[in-house]
Amino acid sequence: MNEAALLIAATLASGTPLAIAGLGLLLNEKAGVLNLGAEGMMLVAAIAGFAAALYTGSDTLAFAAGALAGMAMAALFALLVIGLNTNQYATGLALSLFGAGFSAFVGVDLVGKKLADRAPFEVPLLADIPFFGPALFRQHPMVYLAIAAVAALAWFLYRSRAGLVLRAVGESPESAHALGYPVRTIRFAAVVAGGALCGVAGAFLSVVYAPLWVEGLVAGRGWIALALTTFATWRPARVLLGAYLFGGVTMLQFALQGAGVEVSSQLLSMLPYIATIVVLALISRNPLWIRINMPASLGKPFHPGS
Q1: Hey, is 114 helix, strand or coil?
Q2: How many angstroms separate the CA atoms of 246 and 225, rounded?
């Protein structure tokens, strides 16, 4: 029973950065912008957050640094695709490659360094409940903030006027522009806000989940977060569920190894990515279902006056 509780706890921790990054990318895509640079943004944010935590000892400053790094990368992307009308797919891939190289370059002196041990986090009283305490209530506060962010984003998108306008921009930017809404400004703001969330996710990996710095620390999670938006059919709650699903698959490899299952460690390490491919393959079998849920203008540039 205790092992099951630890597996659940590890799943929550592993799925949290996927959920936060997935929410950021969902916000981008609801505005009609497809950003393939999540991996690069998370890597730059991870090194920024780790450096801030290493030299200040503050998790708060580390997450702030990660968010700012993610926003800066996202603003660069937005300037190119929204301001200069570059191709969204090519620019996103370039951003991802740039982030990988830049984070490796600036973090070369920090490779292998670890953060000081921190006091364990517990929710008072609830953490002492048998099974549920160790499974659910001994997590970093960011785990609970990620769950709150899902509810907040769902409310914003489906209950607030600003969220409805953002969704209108993602569905039909021409109509939104005709009604007087600044389509490009709204898209820029959505991309930068999404970048901040990707930045927080990257900082979580290097500050809480690891907590250390090695080159390529994000290890493909940016791509999995990108796949999550399609898996979730662009719904915030489903992003969270999908993140925990992939987090559980990631932790399963360690559980199997601990149980003495004689399976190649390389094969077990492939499990999260195999699961991603299988899920996307299953979803793609019903293109009509994707087309109904996907923002109509996703990946399409908007040129006012054209």
Answers
A1: strand
A2: 10
Phi-psi region of 220 (alpha: psi -120 to 50; beta: other; left: phi over 0): left
Distances from the Cα of 159 to the Cαs of 76, 238, 271, 296, in angstroms?
Answer: 30, 18, 37, 20
Q: Is residue 306 part of a domain?
A: no
The DSSP result for 127-146, as a single string, is GGSTTHHHHHSSS-HHHHHH
Report d(CA 179, CA 195) in Å as an integer: 27
Q: Is the pLDDT reported for residue 265 higher than 80?
A: no
Q: What is the CATH number of the domain that holds 141?
A: 1.10.3470
Percent pLDDT > 70 in the chain is: 96
Nearest to 147 by CA among 16, 8, 285: 16
* Tally of CB atoms within 10 A around 283: 15
pLDDT above 60: residue 1: no
Structural domain includes residue 19: yes
Mean pLDDT confidence for 258-268: 69
Give the residue numbers spanning the domain of 159. Answer: 2-293
CA distance 231 to 290: 9
Spatial contact of 139 and 11, defined as CB atoms under 8 Å apart = no
| Structural domain contains residue 301 | no
CA dist 30 → 98, 136, 166, 194 (Å): 25, 31, 7, 11
Is residue 30 pLDDT above 70, yes or no?
Answer: yes
206, two tokens: 């290097």
Q: Which of 279, 274, 237 lies closest to 252 in space, CA to CA?
A: 274
Residue 109 lies in a domain: yes
Q: How many domains does the chain have?
A: 1
- Residue 305: per-residue pLDDT: 62
Which range, of 31-40, 80-89, 166-175, 275-284, averages the lowest pLDDT? 275-284
Closest CA relative to residue 75, chosen from 159, 183, 190, 158: 190
Report the predicted TM-score, pTM, of the whole model to 2 decimal places: 0.93
Say if residues 120 and 138 touch (Cβ distance below 8 Å).
yes
Q: What is the DSSP letter of 15?
A: H
